[in-house]
Amino acid sequence: MLYAESSRARFQADAASTLGGQQLVADASMFTAWLQARAAGDSRLQASLVRRFTPEYRSAFQEWLKTEPFTDPDAPPGPGHMPQYRNPQLGKAEQLNAQASHAFEEGTAARETADRYVRMTVLFALVLFLVAVAQRFRTRGVRIGANAVAVGLLVYGLVVVSTLPRL
Questions:
Q1: pTM above 0.85, yes or no
Q2: What is the residue extent of each domain of the chain?
């Protein structure tokens, strides 16, 4: 179940990342068109393009304009490089990827615990087998030896099981 949760979160993260990337590409394309409109002196087209920016990109664009990018050579190359710009879909993708990693790690730990329980079940089956086989031997020493090994394995198994995590 934890692996399924991890996979679901990864798929959601991929979808959010793809959407965020598409939004960034669309904003960057409109920004390029805005630069062309500015160079052509078309203020109506510039205003129309700014309205089409995503809200996050638009606010970063306004901050970018305050850096006087056309006269200051140290200004950021565009709104996407502004510290104020945060794409919510890319942030969501990061969060979902973190959740997926956490669920995957929990799933791995749960699988390892389950494997240890299975090994102990096999060990207890071996104990039962040794006790049953010991009864078939006619020599008393062999029966005692087989039962002693079975008791030793039983004690070992009980100690190991008592240290395993509980669900």
A1: no
A2: 2-88
